[in-house]
Amino acid sequence: MNQSPSLNSFRGGPDEDGRFGIYGGRFVAETLMPLILELQEKWDEAKDDPEFQKELASLGAHYIGRPSPLYFAERLTEHLGGAKIYFKREELNHTGSHKINNCIGQILLAKRMGKTRIIAETGAGQHGVASATVAARFGLPCVVYMGATDVERQAPNVFRMKLLGAEVKPVTAGHGTLKDAMNEALRDWVTNVEDTYYLIGTAAGPHPYPEMVRDFQAVIGREAREQILAAEGRLPDVVIAAVGGGSNAIGIFHPFLDDKEVRIVGVEAGGKGLDGEEHCASITAGSPGVLHGNRTYLLQDGDGQIKEGHSISAGLDYPGIGPEHSWLNDVGRAEYVPIMDHEALEAFQLLTRIEGIIPALEPSHALAEVIKRAPKMGKDEIILMNLSGRGDKDIFTVGKILGMEL
Amino acid sequence: MTARMDRRFADLAAEGRPALVTYFMGGDPDYASSLAIMKALPKAGSDVIELGMPFSDPMADGPAIQLAGQRALRAGQTLAKTLQMARDFRLEDADTPIVLMGYYNPIYIYGVDRFLNDALEAGIDGLIVVDLPPEMDDELCVPAVERGINFIRLATPTTDAKRLPRVLENTSGFVYYVSMNGITGSALPDPSLVGAAVRRIKEHTTLPVCVGFGVKTAEHARAIGASADGVVVGSAIVNQIASSLTADGAATEATVAGVEALVRSLASGVRSAKLAAAE
């Protein structure tokens, strides 16, 4: 199998075939190959084009609201009595999560490629909203595939997408969640290759998506690295982020990968526990396989059939993970831990009460890990957490579980 | 093993007609019925059998084949059982080539070496693995070809002249031309466009070119067969099976009989088509 892209760096991947070690690659139908090769060519041109980078930065500043703040969570730090806790506030971005960073980048690329129709898949609806938003901003029609189960549990985001002019297509195949939405989006793409751009929302899929999405999201880590140096004069001891497909996580992790003293922790959805079937902990409880264009850790049975998984958070409800995370796990640069539904729910409530921030259920998983670790760390130590999305979309889900009338 | 496939196409070329290539999903709606369907296919006039390996996430398939895969998985079909089905079939038919068709992950999990050994021993002649393009040839294609199992590649309308040689590089057995962009079970393409595409592919290869996607009737089979070395029928057969099942998905007397009747009709279609691109 392939060596790591550079012996001296964890940041050099993927190789020219899109591999991170044995992970990644281009496992797609022949119909899509010419498109994926064209996408790679256009992406390679764009990323070295100062004009492209200038437009990306300008939209980042004036449309998304970058840089997002780095916030010292003083009361949470006091409450936990250990390490200093900083949040990278991606939930303050336009549309309420980190997803917009990637969408702005990819739609600029779609325009560059002359594509006239955007399709996207969505789980929690954050990527769907971000896709619908940039499609509206650039005047392109947009179709969002969303699992029927998710359409039901993320009603506010469905409404937002429709307001933004996107067509939301519920997918009933399988369990009607993110994986099924991605299958359906791929089917659309295979059928409409000429005019359609597939705006993948996470750092997974066939090469070059994992690399490209990472690069668009790495703005999170680049800013956070500068901001923490300015605030504390040093790097954090631990960086923590929730991982579904893993785009917010790879975005904040990547610029820290070569800082050997910084521990990197990805938090997977432990659902109702790893003993049963109801979780989405691909690395902790899965095994390597091939799905949706890449080799990566997957939840699957002994016959290679993909399992459905479960998480309280629709955004983590995916039986795979971005290939770079699989590689970072195997080479030991990052560790991946599970957090259960109930732990995330408790963290959600704690942050709401103690800092006046309603986090999305996805970063609530990262937060639950912070809550576990911080008290065991010294007061002079620093945790940086990616607060990747806001919880407005989740209040109905949480209200239902807590038995509150809405 | 390659010999069986080459012999079949050589015989058909001598006969002057295209091959009828029939697809069905292994284990749909249950093992015994599916094996009975497989055995019925050559008797009804099928020249090459594509045996579908069910996968939970068939990204390139339309609703008909998605549902067939779900029925098969629900009935307990696994890759091991699909190989067993081929073995059982070979007890009575030593001549009809069998091509396994599906997605890579179940093979990857089974283990590539073990899979190729078992496939050879089960009498498999070729593989079509939808999500392994030429860029991924090291995974399965190269080891399969080394062992003497054909690796049949899909060419599509997006496969341009620049890409075609790459697509054909390690392919053998036949070339499967997917006559339109899209998922399985879509509408019939324009036969004249198909003819032009087949001629374009034949400029680059001496392999037979079989055309699929959208063929449902004897008339379609005749029209497409006029300009190709073979006609692939999949969704129509799978739909025929689906329509014969009880409300809870169980096989009926019409399940095997319905497929037999459909394939017999399709076979009359290919038999009335002239082999256009005679070698």
UniProtKB/TrEMBL annotation, chain A:
Cofactor(s) this protein requires: pyridoxal 5'-phosphate
Species the sequence originates in: Mycoplana rhizolycopersici
Protein's name in the database: Tryptophan synthase beta chain
Any Pfam family the entry gives: PALP
Gene: trpB
Function: The beta subunit is responsible for the synthesis of L-tryptophan from indole and L-serine.
UniProt-listed Enzyme Commission number(s): 4.2.1.20
Residue positions, PTM N6-(pyridoxal phosphate)lysine: 99
HAMAP family noted in UniProt: Trp_synth_beta (MF_00133)
InterPro entries in the cross-refs: Trp_synth_b_CS (IPR006653), Trp_synth_beta (IPR006654), Trp_synth_beta/beta-like (IPR023026), TrpB-like_PALP (IPR001926), TrpB-like_PALP_sf (IPR036052)
Annotated catalysed reactions: (1S,2R)-1-C-(indol-3-yl)glycerol 3-phosphate + L-serine = D-glyceraldehyde 3-phosphate + L-tryptophan + H2O
Similarity comment: Belongs to the TrpB family.
TrEMBL record, chain B:
Record's signal peptide: none
EC numbers, comma separated: 4.2.1.20
Annotated metabolic or biological route of this protein: Amino-acid biosynthesis; L-tryptophan biosynthesis; L-tryptophan from chorismate: step 5/5
Keyword terms, alphabetized: Amino-acid biosynthesis, Aromatic amino acid biosynthesis, Lyase, Tryptophan biosynthesis
Reaction(s) catalysed (UniProt annotation): (1S,2R)-1-C-(indol-3-yl)glycerol 3-phosphate + L-serine = D-glyceraldehyde 3-phosphate + L-tryptophan + H2O
UniProt similarity note: Belongs to the TrpA family.
Function per UniProt: The alpha subunit is responsible for the aldol cleavage of indoleglycerol phosphate to indole and glyceraldehyde 3-phosphate.
NCBIfam families assigned to the protein according to its UniProt record, in alphabetical order: trpA
The protein's name: Tryptophan synthase alpha chain
